[in-house]
Amino acid sequence: MKKHILTGLSVLGLTTITYSQTPKENNWGTLTGLAGADVQFYTRDSIIGAPVVPEKMRMNAFLFLNYRKGGFYAGARMEFYQPKPLLGIDERFQGQGIPYYFAGYQYKGLDITAGGFYEQFGNGLTLRSYEARQLGFDNFLQGFRIKYNVKGIYIKGVFGRMRDFWTWSRGTVRGIDAEINFNETVPKLRNSKFRLRVGGSFVSVNRPDGEKVIGQEVLTLPLNVGNAAGRLNLGYGNFSLSGEFAYKFNDPSTPNRYIYKPGASALITATYAATNWGISVGAKRIDNFDFRTDREAVGNRLLVNWVPMLNKQHTYTLAASIYPYAVQYVGEQGLQADLNFTIPRGSKLGGKYGMDININASIVYGLDTTNRPSRATVFGSDTVFTPDRYGYTSGAGLGKEYYQDFNIEITKKFNKKWKLTVMYMQLWANLNVLTVSTLGKDPFVHAHIGVADLTWRINNSHSLRIEAEGMYTKQDQGSWLMGLVEWTFAPHWSVSLMNQYNIGHPVPEKRLNYPLGSVVYNMGSHRFQVSYGRQRAGVLCIGGVCRAVPAANGLTLGYIGSF
Amino acid sequence: MNIMNSKTVNGLLPALLLLLTAALSSCDKVPAPYSTVASNIDTTLYPPPSFSINPNAPRKVLVEDYTGHTCGNCPDAAVVLKNILASNPNVVALAVHAGSTFAPPQPPKYPDDWRTETGTAFDNRFGVSSAGQPNGLINRRPVSGSPIVFHTSWANLVNQYLSEDPIADVQLAIKTYFDPASRRLVAYVHSGFVETISDEVNLGVYLVEDSIIGAQKWYNQGLVDDYMHDYVHMDMLRQNISPVWGVSLGANNAAGKIQRREWQIVVPDGYHAEHLKVLAFVYKVSNNEVIQAEEVHIIE
Q1: pLDDT at A432
Q2: Residue B141: how many CA atoms within 13 Å on its side-chain side?
Q3: CA-based torsion, B78, B82, B84, B89: positive or negative
Q4: Contact A539/A548 with Cβ under 8 angstroms?
Q5: Is A86 in contact with A68 (CB distance < 8 Å)?
């Protein structure tokens, strides 16, 4: 229950990756680590559209070591992508080396880091550097960071250049963030039901280009682009309200087509969490908020900020990986409502274990923009028309519809042996906007998705999970069916067989099956996986940042472990 | 707030203020218009064409079709226009998506906005969409008081105007250069006066695109909801190249006079060069009547 509410809240929260291990302090300090490797063998499979991989076999691997003794800490990550990164990961990662390394010191409220670091200010509208390995996304900053906190006042300062595959961004990021938690600062509020946090941040990116030539136009570029934000978190008892507003100064770039209009973004979320139910309602408006260390960068490269998604991040295969929503940094506006409730134990519907229900709805529109008339420059009888570089004015109305999602998920544990989750989802997606999707003939997709996920715990060591999913749509690639059987033999083994079937593809020859078998072996905090089969082309999104997943066929070996 | 007495905080706050001031100053604001437009047309790269008056240059009639994607009767007018074009080489067509009823986007089915600043200006001056759509203008010439003509009369009027005087009063010639890499489009427009014209005339030049696939409502075609998602829009006005109402060629142009005007623009991404045309026409400023029209594809 609580977890669900928190998931809703995490829209405006921080996603933290923890490298879990209980530190064993001794004279030598503590060394912890995380390692992973994925090897994929590629087989030709032209019918599913799998790209030909001349290398046949590729590997992504990393080892992250983290050392700590007293207040001192240091770490490094070795990365390996050879002969090329796995399909779908940006090929510019090709190579091997130790891009990420750092050392730092903590003393009371002070924390100083030199080298690489990950950081987030507020919700991320001004700065968020993070790693999402499956996306091939990594924008850590290389430089210096200072953090200081005293009596509920938190201050952070960062100065650095951003990772750009195997080099550093040409631009430099300078940022400062401050937050006051009044419940810590003001003694009277320490145990109050009333909660208040106020924060602000400012990030400036220095980019070394002074001019940009487009056609006959020579643009004067701002060398330093500033982005400022203020945020507020208010709470009283079970109720909380949080909001952030950010303003970005003129930032002409390739993603915004070199316009000088300032960017503005607003996020607001209200949450109420009671014992058996909770609700979270959020709204956002993002206007020209793509912010990068290089104005020529596109895609997921060199992003300084992050715009939170205001949609449910689905986990079931068909819901998560065919038409997920990719947040549009150049402009969008949306609403989300997320309602959770538990039908209590002992009631007629609730039974012995209760029943959890999650209802979630979100909708995203583009902005209602009006392009400014073009600019005429007269040379004798020759008039040259160039775009008005301010760009557009945005009204309060709605632009094109981008996305809609309504879903309901019910989880019920019948007894110690049986547990069932069912989900229904209806989505509407504008593929003209979500360009990472496989664009078919019809750019507007309306789909219904149903999921049933049944777990049968046979005894203490054996359990069987059966998942059935269906997606019904008349557009794009048509309908899909998916089935999964997973047998877990605790504590080590898990074997699964999955198939996806594109039953409704408009081209009968493309009504294909995508079978995939996997065997997983767990050994403590180490996990080995072998899979064989077809990977369907699709989209992978984490926090609204997406990449295309190309089709593939073959054997995959995977390892992940920590110590 | 007694914490303000704390030494640490006292030391911290000025430092914070200093940092903030320093940070806020590291932000540049570029004043409008943000850019300078460089040099004239490079005539070594894009040499102006030679031009001489052809005293027998044919008259060409401009047919404007004011339309909208949610106007279910409008494709019927487009069919009429298509037939006119097929049977007569001396017709230049311009489809203007304008008006507040049928042209605005209506997502999700009609998401596109094909309206243009120019089209809206034309529509406002002649009041076409407020008279109902489909409707059109033939040479912007009034027929019993109003220039607005229903599509059933288009073919007759075109034939009438062409037969009145099959020789042009002003000959127009357009030469274009298009560089796909920079998307630069250079257009030279020559006006050669075959007859003396005392009225002041303007030359308007516009970018027109064929074969744009988009949604269209079309009645009586047996379509579900009368909805066609892949309708092929022809002759669509995309933007002005000259100012909206053109540039003045002056008054009292004697027969034999030649004038040249040139433009260069960067063709926006998303316009398909192979379907783009440059359309030009000359009209009398006093009564808006179009006296000659011409168009060429930007890629021959």
Answers
A1: 82
A2: 15
A3: positive
A4: yes
A5: no
Distance in angstroms (rounded) separating the CA atoms of residues B255 and B7: 91
Q: Among the residues of B137-200, which ranges form H helices? A: 154-164
Residue A307: predicted pLDDT: 95
pLDDT digits (tens, 9 = 90+) for B196-236: 999 999 999 999 999 999 999 999 999 999 999 999 999 99
- The residue-averaged pLDDT of B273-290 equals 96
The whole-number pLDDT of residue A250 equals 95
Count of other CB atoms within 10 angstroms of residue A385: 21
Q: What is the DSSP pairing of strand B258-266 with strand A493-501?
A: unpaired
Task: For residue B121, tell me if it sits in a domain.
Answer: yes
Residue A176's SS3 state is strand
Starting at the edge strand found earlier in the chain, the sheet holding B170-179 runs A375-379, A382-386, B258-266, B184-193, B170-179
In this prediction the ipTM stands at: 0.73
Compute the distance between CA of residue A492 and CA of residue A524 in angstroms, rounded to an integer: 9
Which structural domain, as residue segments, surrounds residue B153?
61-168+205-246+269-297
Interface test with B, best of A176, A201, A381, A393 (most B CBs within 10 A): A381
Q: Tell me how close the Cα of A116 comes to any Cα of chain B, in angstroms.
A: 21
Shortest Cα distance, chain A CAs vs residue B276, angstroms: 17
The reported pLDDT for the residue numbered B16 is: 66
Using CA atoms, how far apart are residues B300 and B296, in angstroms rounded to an integer? 8
| CB contacts, 8 Å: A206 with chain B | 26
Q: Which helix (H) or strand (E) holds B13?
A: helix B7-25
Beta strands in A414-457 (DSSP E): 418-430, 444-457
Q: Distance of CA A123 to CAs A6, A141, A199, A266, B52, Å?
A: 15, 18, 11, 11, 67
Instruction: Report the C-alpha gap between B221 and A45 in whole angstroms.
Output: 42
State the amino acid at position A342 in one-letter form: T
DSSP 8-state symbol, B160: H
**Gyration radius of chain A's alpha carbons:** 25
The DSSP code sequence of A240-292 is EEEEEEEEE-----TTTTS--PPEEEEEEEEEEE-SSEEEEEEEEEEES---B
**Mean pLDDT, all residues of chain B:** 90
What pLDDT digit, counting tens, does each position of A260-313 carry?
A: 999 999 999 999 999 899 999 999 999 999 999 999 999 999 999 999 999 999
For chain A, how many residues are written?
563
List helix spans (H) across A149-223: 182-185
Report how far residue B280's alpha carbon sits from residue B39's, in angstroms, rounded to the nearest whole number.
24
With beta carbons less than 8 A apart as the criterion, state whether B263 and A383 touch: yes
Whole-number average pLDDT of chain A: 90
**How confident is the model over A375-398, as a mean pLDDT?**
80
Tens digit of each residue's pLDDT (9 = 90 or more) over B134-189: 999 999 999 989 999 999 999 999 999 999 999 999 999 999 999 998 888 999 99
pLDDT band at A210 (very low <50, low <70, confident <90, very high): confident
Instruction: Tell whether B256 is covered by a domain.
Output: no
Place of tokens 């997983």: A520
- Counting the structural domains of chain B, the total is 1
Nearest chain A residue (CA) to B269:
A257
The Cα–Cα gap between B281 and B283 comes to 7
- Contact list in A for residue B35 (CB cut-off 8 A) is 214, 217-220, 386, 389
d(CA A65, CA B45): 59
Residues of A in contact with B9 (CB under 8 A): 150-151, 153
Specify if B30 maps to a domain. Answer: no
Question: Is this prediction's pTM over 0.90?
Answer: no
Is A231 a residue whose pLDDT tops 50? yes
Q: CATH number of the domain at A314-338+352-372+398-563, please?
A: 2.40.160
Closest CA to B206 of B193, B192, B189: B189
Q: Cα angle vertex B20, ends B14, B26, to 5°?
A: 140
Domain membership flag for residue B128: yes
